[in-house]
Design goal:
The complex is a heterodimer of chains A (111) and B (340). Chain A has 111 residues and is an all-alpha fold. Chain A is built from 7 helices and 1 strand. By secondary structure, chain B is of the alpha/beta class. The chains are: A mainly alpha (111), B alpha/beta (340). At the A-B interface, strand 1 and helix 4 of A face helix 6, strand 14 and strand 17 of B. Strand 1 of chain A pairs parallel with strand 17 of chain B, so a sheet runs across the interface.
Chain lengths: 111, 340
Amino acid sequence: MMNFGFKIAPSATINLDNVDMEKFTLLHEMEPDVYKCMACGSCSATCPAGRFTGMSVRKVILDLQRGREKEAVRMLKGCMLCGKCSMVCPRGINTRHLILSVCRIYNEDKQ
Amino acid sequence: MKENIVIIGGGIAGLEAAGQLIRLGYSPIIVEKQDHLGGHVAEWHCLFPDMTPASDVVSRLTENVSEANIFVNTEILFINHLKDSYNVMLSNGISIVTRIILFTTGFRLFDASKKEEYGYGVYDQVITNRDLEQWFSTGNDDRVNSRELNAVGFVHCVGSRDEKAGNGQCSKVCCITAVKQAIEMKQRFPEAQVYCFYMDLRMFGKKYEDFYISAQRDYGVRFIRGRVSEVSENIEGKVIVKAEDTLAGKPVKVTLDLLVLMAGIVCNPDCTKVASMIPLQMDSDGFLKSRDNIMDITGSSRSGIFYAGACTGAKTVPETLAEARSAALDIHNYITSSRI
């Protein structure tokens, strides 16, 4: 392979064919309401940690379904478990409980 | 009470209006272009949000019009404007002199092959909402391979909210139809992944939001916010769909066994033709122009001409039925007030 001194950037495209949904299925069994998220963003808007750490529950839920688990777990490190997002969620998702379940399922292999 | 009332279109609006007029003591005449009554609803399998069989709705409406004069397979050749009435010439050679014409000419589904990038008519695995609904009813469609259906996609807003496609309007009912059809696919193929590609989800009607939540929570339908940009075929004969996941801000692609295009609602071109004979004004959205879009949606700018249903814009079944009843009452009032 010729070395040009630069490489093509990897594609940013999310390929849904390759997303492993096994853990998400497990999460869904523990937290059936995770499917109810409609990405309105009220959780992120109210999150006191969000503006400092980039924490966003709606993004976590989305990333997990797009195979971006590392990013999701990294984001969750900013969460203080204050539970404000649970109070504002219009779909009544227990986001605080959901976050704990995500940590339990996805943190096992220390990503 | 011998007053001719011509109803153009034997869809649900025409049937309901005729049924109400019969109950009021009139004898309406229904002119239907196709060989069957019930219009689009007769071709549908079941209706949101309670999964009511469409055939039940049509047969109930048809029962009420057994006394009406019904001409199927009949078109309007021309309409002459006489002094204070209209002479309607039908393709079966009958001509009717009437003071009152009710337009229940309905809509036509947008021709999905116009959006070439979505591959309708090009790839075998791409069908429309109407094709899928017929497959639900009959089970006959070579494009749907039920033995190998692991991933299904629905594309919202095909020929709706699309100025370039010549239809800037929201077709209103396709969001909820997609949710309904996605649920039905999940019921038939619980293991399949079902994706909906949407711009907005407009769940405006009674129980629609519940239906949407149920699609998410109970059926696991996956909603992806972003308009599909293009569809291609891979070597195995599956379709690859590309879109932007606007919530993630990233391009997304997925391989599907079946893609369903939610074709939008446009004004029936036959209606435009008949309207030009009188002539009637068209509104800026391409549908018939009501006398007033708030206070008098069933009235036209011409005396004796009335509208009901989707000829004035996209409507749900209950909205169409309500409008048909309202038009029947308007016609009754028109007749009684002119008699004095």
